[in-house]
Every structure is written in structure tokens, then in C-alpha cells.
Amino acid sequence: MTKRKLKLKKSAQKILLIILGIIVVIGIIFGFYMSRINELKSLGYSDVAAKSIVFKFKYSYVVNKGKNKTLNAAFESDNYNEKYLDNYADITYQKQDNLISNINKLIKKGYSDKEISLIISRGDDKSVSSFAKRDKVKYVEEFLNVSYAKLENYDRYVAYQEKEFDDAETTVLYVNMDFDKEDYVDPLVIDKFDDYVLVNKHRQLSSNYIPDDLVTIDEEYVKADGEIEIERNVAKAFYDMARDASKEGIELMVSSGYRSYKDQEEIMNTYLELYGQNYVDNYVAKPGFSEHQTAMSLDIASKSVSVFVESNEYSWMMDNAYKYGFILRYPKSKEDITGYKCEAWHYRYVGKDIAKYIKENNITYDEYYVMFLDD
Fold first, then answer.
1. Other beta carbons within 10 Å of 47
2. Which residues are bridge partners to 40 per DSSP?
3. Distance (Å, rounded) from C-alpha 203 to C-alpha 162?
């Protein structure tokens, strides 16, 4: 038998060529699409954002802008609004669940990109979401330009400044320290141990607050009846300081260290009975409001002189304590900040770097904490 070759009709050949052509075109388009997706991903955009950028025909715009976290969030979001594209590109990114939704609301209310960047940087998602619901307010930049301003305190800043006429930075500092509130009224209650914890008349330790690592001060350094406990790192720093001081004829002692909530309660009641309320208000902390409960503070004494402020040890401490991580917690020049009369003997351990900064800039730990540690 003779084999017969199958031969497609011309019409079928044309159809096949068209199909092959379509496949080739689709392949080229897909390759082009994937190359753009990969390029966007190499710039730092997520897969979701990259696909959205290409589908919205904003590839050239985004590539020209380069890596931009706010743009990435915008193209990932269901709240993307093309008319705000330039705004997204100019607003500084913050990791917040409702970022794009809140940006849209703030733009609509008439805030500038710079103002919006400040607003979202000075609050968390909850406070920004709440702020975005308000009518537009004045003085946003005035207060929020201060690096440690808090969006949640905005109304308090306005009220305080109208009352006290302080500049914006002072207003933010003082309000963040709760100077617009009465002492001991509505304090922040702290129950977890923290080496950097701030305690004052607006920040209270709970009765359950106990330091993590207490040790007993060596008897040779104790100038008091009974044992004195302190946090381990504070004890080590004190020993280093005392040994170096002794080489210069300075004999540092400790008259008080850790005091529990109950201990402070007993002390306050004793002084109240002996000297009255006015003395207690100026010199004695209420239970929970004493730094001694943190175990990060020491009352320093001289071995030979009864009145510490008149001793060589006091002069030496004023010049050298910061080198070992200690600060005079309640200096005379800062009584309006700390809320206490000067205690020449009361030193707080904060670490060498912080102590040096406080010494060089003549500020209190309250101020340092608000400016750099309070989040």
C-alpha cells in the first residue's frame, strides 16, 4: 500500500498560524509584564503592590520615584485613590493598619503633606484614626514639629499654652510630664520592672512592683541599721565608683537602697506624724511614688561627715558620679521639674551614656525620659 501524507487545507493553516501568533504575542506580553513586576519588586515593592502598579499603568511613575514605602502601602490598599498619588509619594511612611485610609481623610480635610507626615509620625494607628475624624485644627506643625510630641496630647498642648504662654517645645515637654495635671491625680500605674522606669508624682509603681535582681550591699559600705538591698547592676556600678573614690581619700557609703511599697508607706506615716503634711509633700514620696521601690536609687553618705552636703564626698559625687552611670536625681536648680526639694544624697543609676548626657545638658531624668525614652 502507498502511504498518503496529510495536508492541511489553506484555511486551517491560516487558523493555526493565527493561534501560534496569538500565543507568541501573549508570551511576549506576559514576559514584558513579568519583567516589570520583577523590576518593581527589586525596587522594594511587594508582589501585590507591583501587580497593582502595572495594572493601573503607573509603572513609569513609580520607577521614577524609586523605592517608596507609602506608595507601596497605597498600591496594596483597597483605599488607593489615584488623585492622591503625588501626596502618597511625598508623605513619610508609618507602619499603621489604616494608614492610607487616614491619609485620604487628612488630605480631604486640607492638611499639607508635611502636616500629614507629622500627624501620622506622632501617633499610633488608634490615635491617628481618631484625629483623622476631627475637623481640621490649627497649630499642627507648631506642636508636632517637636520630636517627642504625642498626637494624643494635642488638645492638652493647646490648653496648656493658652494658660501658661510657654513656647511650643516647653509646652510639649511639660504636658508630656503631666504638668497640666495635679500631683498624684490620675497617675500612670506601672507594674512591670524596667531598668529605665521613671517614677515621679505622676507615675506610680503598683504595690506589686518588685525589681528582678536584688542583691545585698556589702556591709563595709553600709551606713545604716540592717541590710540594704539594691539592683545587681546598680550595686556593681556603686562598688566601682566607691573603690575609685577611695583612692582619692573619698569614703562613699550607702544609707538607703531598695524600699518596698509597704516600707514607703510606713516611712510616710512616720514623717507625717513627726513633721506634718507640708514636709511630706516636699520631701517624702507617697507609697508607689518613691524611686527607692525601683531599686535603681541609692542614698549616698559620707563615712566621716554627718551632713552629706558639707562633705568632700558630696563634692566628689557632683563631679564624678556621672562617670559611673549615676545622676543627682533631685538637684536644687530643678525643683520645679522634679517636684521635690533638693536631695543632695539621692542618686539614681541610669547608665553611663544617659548620665553623661544629663550632666552635660543640665537636665533632669524626667526631661531625658520624656525626650528619648517615653514611647
1. 12
2. none
3. 25
